[in-house]
Each structure stands twice: as structure tokens, then as C-alpha cells.
Amino acid sequence: MPENHPLLHWLLPAGGDGRDPGRLVRVARAAEQAGFGSLVTPVGPGCTDPWTLAPALCRQTERIGFLIGCRAGFGSPTTLAQQADAFRRFAGGRLGLLYGDQQTRDQRYGRTDEVMAVLRALLDGKRVDFQGDHVQVEGAQLADPAVEFKVPLYFGGASPAAEDLAARRADVQVLRIEPGEPLSAVAGRVTRVRDRSPALRLALRVPLTDGDSAHEASQRLLAYAELGVDEFVLSGGLPHLEVAPRLRERWHERGTAGVAPGV
What we know:
Layout: E1 7-11, H1 21-34, E2 38-41, H2 50-58, E3 65-71, H3 77-91, E4 95-100, H4 105-123, E5 128-131, E6 136-140, E7 153-156, H5 160-169, E8 172-176, H6 183-196, E9 201-208, H7 214-225, E10 231-236, H8 243-256
Parallel strand pairs: 1-2, 1-10, 2-3, 3-4, 4-7, 7-8, 8-9, 9-10
Antiparallel strand pairs: 5-6
Helix pairs in contact: 3-4, 4-5, 7-8
């Protein structure tokens, strides 16, 4: 999708259809054709390993990116940097990393902060010496890293501590829409993040139901985009692949009608 449009990502299912290779290939190809920016590969119990799934789907597609779910406690940051560097090299980029963790809040944010700091430095080609409370690294450096391919770091969370971490370490902060949350409440959260970190890109995770039409879904997303949201992570029972072209159409109509978009 062009940069002046909101960027859309589709969250792949964690179980069930998420273990059907044929269906996942069909979804990946259809999402690419529809104009989605990337497929989100979740991580955790019951999920197909994202570092196996993403390369498999990458070989079956040409352009679509992969936003790979990560948890700070699953392996060392140096190993993760090696995995990410290999993927971006052989895929020609097409990679982002989405962070979460399963520890208590204080442990989660402290450890994730340190892991993201080390990971960013390594992916930028730097030599890293780091002695933190959770991560200790001495003299780490990737061999001939593919630094021409930037890897955006996404971080989910809406608490003040999460917002502080996102502002320090992430390129994109992901907020979850609560069921039935009114537009005014979303607007307040967007404003708070924007006031705290003007340069930080903002994504919303928006669940869609099987009953949502492409028109209804695109209207919702357009309203959020006009608040200043840059990206959307869509999820639901079925891939709403028609939403991306419909949103592009509505966005273009708003622009040509002289209404200044909010992003």
C-alpha cells in the first residue's frame, strides 16, 4: 500500500486453520494481491513456530511483509538478531518484529526494554556490550549484517509504562481496540500517545466479525485513520481481504474531495 495510505496487516490464526499449510498459502497470496502490508505470525503455545511459518510463506509470495511475533524470554537477543538478519537478507527485507512478554508487568517491561535495545543495536550493525538486569552481552556483533533492510520494531501495550518503553525502543506502538469502545475513547488514547511521542507510528489492532461488510469495516478504519492512526492489525474469523482495496478507495475519495487526511 502506498505510504500515504494507512498500512494494513492481517493476523494469521494461531491454531486450527493456522496449521493448514494449503490454506495459509492461499490467505498469504490473497492478502498480497489485496494490498495488505504484511502478515502477522503470532507466537506462543498452540501457534505454529513463526520462524518456520514466515519463511515458508515468504517463498510462496513476492512482496508481502511478515510481522513476526516475538517474546523477550524466548531465546537470547543475539540469536533473535541472527534469525532476523538472515530472514531480511534472503527475503529482501519484508520483515518487522512484534514484541510481547509473559512475565509480570515490571519484569516484562524491564526485560523487553533490554532485549529491544540490544536487538536494535545489532540489527543496525553495531558492536554491543551490554550489562543489564536481564540481559548481559559482551562483544556481540553480526557478521556482515544486511543493514540496507531496516527492521521496524513494534510493541503492544497501552499503560504509561508501555508507552514509555514504546517511545524509547519501538518504531510502532500497537494499541488494542476494546469491544464496544466508542470512537471518542479511541481518540483520547491516540491523542495521549501522540502528545507523548509525536514521531512514534501508531497501530490499532481491530477485530472484525464475519458479519462486517467491507464497507462497514473500511468506514471504521477510515474514522480511526482520521484520528491519526498510521497502521491497522486486523483479525477475525475470516480474512477480510476486500477491506484493503475499499479503504484505499475511500482514502483517495477523501483526499480528492479536499478533506485533509489525519496521517
